[in-house]
Amino acid sequence: MKAVIEASGIVTRFGERTIHDGVSLQVHENEIFAILGESGAGKSVLMKEMIMLLRPNAGKIVVLGRDLSAISFQEAQHLRREWGVLFQFGALFSSLTIAENIEVQLKEYTRLSKRMRDKLVRSKIALVGLDAHVGALYPSELSGGMIKRAALARALAMEPKLLFLDEPTSGLDPVGARNFDKLIVELRQMLGITVVMITHDLDSIFNIVDRMAVLADKHVVAQGTLDEVLASTHPFVEAFFKNEYTKEKFADKLKGRGVDVQ
Amino acid sequence: MKREFIAWTKNRDRLEVALLGEWTLRSAGEIEALIQQLPKAENIVVDVSGITDFDSAGILLLSEYVEQARSRGVHIEVINYTDAQQELYKMLQEHMVEKIVPRKQGFFEELGKATVQLVRDTKDFITFLGHLVVSFWYGITHPKTLRYKETVYHIYQSGFNALVIIGMTAFLVGMVIAYQGAVQLAKFGADIFIVDTVGISIVRELGPMITAIVIAGRSGSAYTAEIGAMKITEEIAAMRTMGFDPYNFLVLPRIFALMIALPLLIFFSDIIGILGGMVASKMVVGISFDQFISRLQEVLEVKHYILGMIKGPVFAFIIAAIGCFRGFEVSDNTESIGLQTTASVVNAIFLVIAFDALFSVIYTEFGL
Predict the structure, then answer these.
(1) What is the pTM of this model?
(2) Domains with residue ranges and CATH for chain A
(3) Out of B24, B56, B333, closest to residue A94 by CB
(4) Helical residues (DSSP H) of chain B, grouped into ranges
């Protein structure tokens, strides 16, 4: 199994406060990988370090075979075209329409004709389940769920091999959230992409995530498939996965995995 | 290294095209140009077995080529495709929205919108003023509800922190007036009248106006941006739900603060402006500081000072009220903060100058 992202010994400090103290994880090719942890555990910070928005104080991150600590400007620019990032609140450019938002990188980085660019934009808009008329609207005219979808379409515009999602289902209604999950699985299958996401959504974790890393106490306290993570007895894992709610809702999934379900 | 994406052979009516290499977005621009160069034929066979890598951009290029050929009545066939390619092709066929029609605006539509906007702006401003008067009155009759801490904070921000820039501007303006005036007056041998020119023009007109313009650019814009950002982050909505009146919490402290700070700044700018004139007079026509000051005491009546100072609170009210009003007008996108801030400064400066003209007319009518 080829590793798409390899982080080892990440240390992050903000002033006096240590966020990560030796965090290591591997993301394999073509899997849906989740980063979990309580608020303030440094999930977003870790993701920002992977996409070169922040630099860790120590440690090494290799993304798609490139070491981020010793990357040249050219290489970094190249790498940025290989991944797509979905920000938690969309981060769509408010001065551009949705179609222009999706098109902006195609315009900047390819020599495709306007006609082909339009076609790609239209296919991306359809792919995320939006209507054509949404393409002509501005982000401020969209609802939260539509913004998420439009932002996903923009993240997919450059046909990335690697997709970063920051809480993709937060702020969506349950039906919308499950559709979003389905969409991610479909995209993974069809486009052969690797997905790294931060999520708290138990449905996503139980249903679509292949492997995950649990961040707590500045470390990765559990990493691997659901089975492997459930084997951990760390208090956060216990509280997050083995509470009254999950025991009732995901009884069938937990039962086969050695968790005591009444 | 020259990569190859398309190879073809032509036998009479039959064109055999072999697609090679990476049909991905990275090479899509190049491939699109190559497709344009393919010769026309009645029968086309496209062999895709040579494709090593593909994504939706590549598939779309191919399907576009096939569709165009079909629409010309050409018999075209794609052979040797893999399941994955077929699947992606099918998915792309299913997932395609119709053409996106941009919302166009004609001249008249824009003119109409701008007119309606203007009317709406005016109406909103009158509403704002009405609301403000009510809050103002309530604040004055219930002084306990006033936000003294915020007011002091804004006096510090808009007043004290502006001293340096106001001082520098006033000094330079004073110097320029003296320079220009002294050269002209020296022609008549009336050098000493430069003191009258500098003293009266600065205290009556230039001091208040220059200060107000600098403050409109400095504090008016800040008020708009602050309140606008709070509107976007829904802080103002949150305040309303808690029963905090944004006029009382945001607008009144800023207006009171500026109405206190601006007259003080004008006083400061009067002194520095006259100092600038004094320095320039000594340099150009050699009037000593002693001469200058004793002449100043003779000609600069207190009424000039008072007439200048009266403008202070009026200008302050204009700047702060417009700054806050424009802040509330911000709609929920980042671009509108910029637009409203610009509008805030432009409106405030224009109104300051217009009111200054109005004061001049009134003063002249009353023979002051």
Answers:
(1) 0.73
(2) 1-82+194-262 (3.40.50.300)
(3) B333
(4) 25-36, 56-71, 83-94, 107-141, 148-158, 163-187, 194-201, 207-215, 221-232, 235-241, 246, 252-285, 289-299, 302-329, 334-365
